């Protein structure tokens, strides 16, 4: 047992630090995702070493080194994920639902293209009545399957694809401008929309880059470059801004943190919770892949992970309040 405990401990110490390797290969970058799970396993391993030391007097230099490595690795994981717990300062203030500020709401849902459970998503739309609905992984089947909501959403932009990267945008607010863009990869769309709300120009971005994985992109570089490119564009854009979608990246990764820093946007989840939208069907595989970021012009009214719609992702609903011109 001591040998097995030592071997597993060394493995999880290595996995904790693997993302620091200078590679964007999925085998390296994938370990940025399960930091919460790794932290939980490391805690159990530390408890196992404490048990051995207490009851079997198995405490030597190697054990001390491993315990030190596990402890440092646990602290390292906690540093990454703690901003998304109630222990951390909230980055975005909340306003009451009865606030007189103009509201703007977005429902983002990766529907999982093979899924046919249209009614559950329609039910969420009927219940929440978001100003914007963006569906990801949606194809012509999904376009037809939820077509009954189109009467409530007269402003639309569709990009049905059969490659798991289709995107459909439904809006109650007229578009001043709307553009379908393929920023990095020819088969991966994104959308940029401009609207007016209370005579103020607002820009919205809807994104769904490919993840680093054995079945998608072997390397994370295309996703990283897209997020950096959009972040740099946002930094040059004036006025209120909202970004939503499945970024195929966790909130605490270096890539998303870089995007947030470059763009200057805020994350309403900080200090509130993980809002793990993936995986909807595996209880132990949970992390936040679906995101919403916004400029300082907004305060938070509500952010909510909704019930599943038959997809491997939960929908994410966010309602924001437009405050003042300078964002203070």
Automatic annotation (TrEMBL):
<feature type="transmembrane region" description="Helical">
    <location>
        <begin position="64"/>
        <end position="84"/>
    </location>
</feature>
<dbReference type="InterPro" id="IPR036691">
    <property type="entry name" value="Endo/exonu/phosph_ase_sf"/>
</dbReference>
<keyword id="KW-0472">Membrane</keyword>
<protein>
    <submittedName>
        <fullName>Endonuclease</fullName>
    </submittedName>
</protein>
<dbReference type="InterPro" id="IPR005135">
    <property type="entry name" value="Endo/exonuclease/phosphatase"/>
</dbReference>
<keyword id="KW-1133">Transmembrane helix</keyword>
<feature type="domain" description="Endonuclease/exonuclease/phosphatase">
    <location>
        <begin position="107"/>
        <end position="313"/>
    </location>
</feature>
<feature type="transmembrane region" description="Helical">
    <location>
        <begin position="38"/>
        <end position="57"/>
    </location>
</feature>
<keyword id="KW-0378">Hydrolase</keyword>
<keyword id="KW-0540">Nuclease</keyword>
<dbReference type="Pfam" id="PF03372">
    <property type="entry name" value="Exo_endo_phos"/>
</dbReference>
<dbReference type="GO" id="GO:0004519">
    <property type="term" value="F:endonuclease activity"/>
</dbReference>
<keyword id="KW-0812">Transmembrane</keyword>
<keyword id="KW-0255">Endonuclease</keyword>
């Amino acid at each position: 047992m001591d040998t097995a405990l030592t071997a597993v401990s060394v493995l999880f110490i290595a996995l904790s630090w693997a993302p620091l390797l200078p590679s964007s290969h999925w085998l390296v970058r994938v370990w940025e995702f399960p930091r919460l799970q790794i932290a939980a396993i490391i805690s159990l391993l530390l408890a196992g070493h404490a048990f051995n030391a207490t009851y079997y007097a198995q405490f030597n230099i190697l054990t001390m080194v491993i315990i030190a490595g596990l402890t440092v690795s646990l602290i390292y994981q906690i540093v990454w994920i703690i901003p998304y717990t109630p222990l951390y300062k909230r980055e975005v203030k909340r306003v009451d639902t009865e606030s007189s500020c103009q509201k703007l709401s977005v429902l983002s849902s990766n529907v999982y293209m093979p899924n046919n459970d249209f009614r559950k998503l329609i039910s969420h739309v009927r219940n929440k009545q978001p100003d914007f609905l963006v569906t990801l992984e949606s194809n012509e089947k999904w376009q037809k399957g939820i077509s009954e909501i189109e009467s409530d959403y007269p402003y639309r932009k569709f990009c049905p694809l059969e490659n798991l990267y289709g995107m459909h945008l439904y809006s109650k607010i007229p578009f001043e401008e709307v553009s379908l863009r393929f920023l990095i990869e020819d088969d991966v769309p994104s959308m940029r929309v401009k609207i007016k709300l209370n005579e103020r120009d607002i820009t919205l971005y809807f994104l769904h880059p490919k993840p680093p994985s054995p079945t998608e992109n072997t390397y994370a570089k295309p996703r990283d470059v897209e997020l950096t490119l959009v972040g740099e564009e946002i930094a040059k854009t004036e006025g209120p801004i909202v970004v939503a979608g499945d970024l195929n990246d966790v909130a605490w990764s270096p890539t998303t943190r870089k995007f947030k820093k470059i763009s200057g946007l805020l994350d309403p989840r900080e200090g509130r919770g993980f809002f793990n939208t993936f995986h909807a069907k595996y209880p132990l595989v949970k992390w936040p892949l679906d995101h919403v970021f916004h400029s300082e012009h907004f305060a938070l009214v509500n952010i909510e992970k909704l019930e599943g719609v038959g997809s491997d992702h939960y929908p994410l609903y966010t309602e924001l309040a437009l405050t003042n011109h300078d964002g203070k």
